[in-house]
Design a protein that fits this description.
single chain; elongated
Length: 167
């Protein structure tokens, strides 16, 4: 299996790197757009029922998109790590690879937590508990997504370093 991955990586390394980078950019860019561009506009809607309904629908669609991006990033990352043999390189490079993998797992866990909070938010919205709905939406858009944006920028830096590293 490892030989297949290495051969596949050698034949399609440009496509694998491009896929990995594009999906990372889409994930971080989408989080940025929701947190800093779309959400402030939605909070200007005067009708709370409409405002929260639109926000919940937007976040649900974004989460579906995010999980697809994370799956694509995971598969391309597996090919990159297996194809470049980072374990045979310097110990510092190997440590960076493990840090990057850990940060990706953290980012995925935060998206799972966002999904759970969004389901609770929807239940609060259906019960017309708009204060709880507002607090959960703010937690998601102002803190969790922003933290994922920060993680994404750090990961882009590390991935760029690892991508330029020829071990």
């Amino acid at each position: 299996m490892e030989a297949f991955i290495k051969e596949f990586y050698e034949n399609f390394f440009l496509w694998i790197f491009s896929t990995h980078f594009i999906f990372v950019a889409l994930l971080v860019g989408g989080s940025f757009c929701i947190s800093f561009l779309i959400q402030p506009v939605l909070f200007k809607i005067n009708n709370p029922k409409l405002r929260y309904a639109k926000t919940i629908i937007l976040l649900q669609r974004f989460l579906h998109f995010s999980f697809l991006c994370l799956i694509a990033i995971a598969f391309s990352g597996i090919f990159i790590v297996a194809g470049q043999n980072f374990d045979e390189g310097s110990p510092a490079t190997s440590i960076i690879v493990h840090v990057v993998e850990s940060l990706w797992i953290l980012m995925g866990a935060i998206f799972v937590y966002i999904s759970i909070k969004l389901k609770r938010t929807f239940r609060f919205f259906m019960k017309k508990e708009y204060t709880q709905t507002h607090e959960n939406i703010e937690l998601i858009t102002k803190y969790l997504l922003v933290f994922n944006i920060f993680l994404g920028i750090v990961l882009i830096y590390f991935n760029t370093f690892l991508g330029s590293k020829q071990c």
